[in-house]
Amino acid sequence: MENIKTPKSKEYKKLGFTYLETAEIVINLNTLLANYHVFYNKLRNFHWNIEGPEFFELHEEFEKEYNTVQQNIDIVAERIRVFGIKPNFTMKKTLELSEIKETKQNLSAIEMVREVLRDFEILHDNMMSAIGSSLDTGDIATEQILTDFLRALEKRNWMFTSFLK
Known about the structure:
The protein is mainly α. It has helices at residues 19-49, 55-82, 91-97, 109-137, 140-164. α4 packs antiparallel against α5 (140-164).
């Protein structure tokens, strides 16, 4: 029988940056991931528990928002993997890292929207920090991902703010 060589599995190699160069980016992305997880859970609860005259509109808007957040969670986690780090989040770790906090039950529709707007501010600041560390390192790929997130977040902020007026 012929001796067949099997390719040895190669260890994953990051492109372009060292571990130390990406450490601050990964810290910011981990914080963003934790914030997104808590925000996602909050949005799901708002979607399920909205009541009153705003039900139909906000039920749909909260669903749009949590679907976007769900996609962004995956993108952020995969970006962390690009740097050779495994995002391994327990609920406890997520709650410890997240600046977004869980909310009490039985909020009115207006209180829910105000809560979303407060969380947008946290996400915005988190994204700006991550963009800054990406630009400092020259990581334009992460910067572009986050800039796209930021652009969409700013538009949704305008829409939810307009809803309150």
